[in-house]
Design goal:
With 263 residues, the chain is α/β, with parallel strands linked by helices. The strands form four sheets. Strands 3, 4, 5, 8, 9 and 10 form a six-stranded parallel beta sheet that branches. It has a three-stranded mixed beta sheet with strand order 2-12-11, with no helix packed on it. It has a two-stranded antiparallel ribbon with strand order 1-13. α3 links the parallel β3 and β4. α6 packs across α7 and α8 packs parallel to α9. The chain is globular and about 40 Å long.
Amino acid sequence: MKLFLLKRKHVTVLACLLAAAVMFFAVNHPLVVGAAATERQLPIYCVQRDQKMVSISFDAAWGNEDTQALIDILGKYNIKATFFVVGSWVDKYPESVKALHDAGHEVMNHSNTHAHMSQLSKEEIIADVEACNDKIEAVTGVRPTLIRPPYGEYDDNVITAIRSIGMEPIQWDVDSLDWKELPASEITQRVTSKVQAGSIVLFHNAALHTPEALPTILETLLQQGYTFVPISQIILPQPYTIDHTGRQLPAAPSTAAPTASAQ
């Protein structure tokens, strides 16, 4: 009996030591544990590009004061951008949606009602997205292939729902913060200091100082050798992968799934 208790004590000690070792490893090597535990769905924040390419994007959800001014500025530099528009904005300003399309800009989806998609079911998300697609296609004749979730909010359910209907969710890696009504000089500094090859820049069509800042931003980046393309032209075709930062990468020969491990 004494020998049994002694062995049992040794087993308990060994078990405790093993548990402590596992905990130490988990704390000091979270990437391994995270990768093994789950696969997180991510949108595209930016793209790995060797060329100095950048995409300019605008979200249109509320006002419409500056849309034509933005079209004129972009036209002056012969730059095509991507505009993510809300379905209710299409209802209010169909002439602006058509003007954007006629000027050669991409008109993409920003949801139908600017709802918090992470609070919706998969079926509700798809219905909302398709409703906006229908409105944009009715005006432009082109059905969107890209979407930017409202508020930049998403979870696995949102991303899975979007990709289930063949669309690509798009975020950004350079935020102008123009919606905060920052001075034009500050917007310019933020954007030009953060852009890199493959960047996607976020602006808003009704931000107070964006039309003032935009020409200097475009001129600065052009002087630095950047080429501007719409988002559909900067993202990579399948197969691809997305790293934990949201950067889209060409897939390795054995990897084709557009997912990223939670890290």
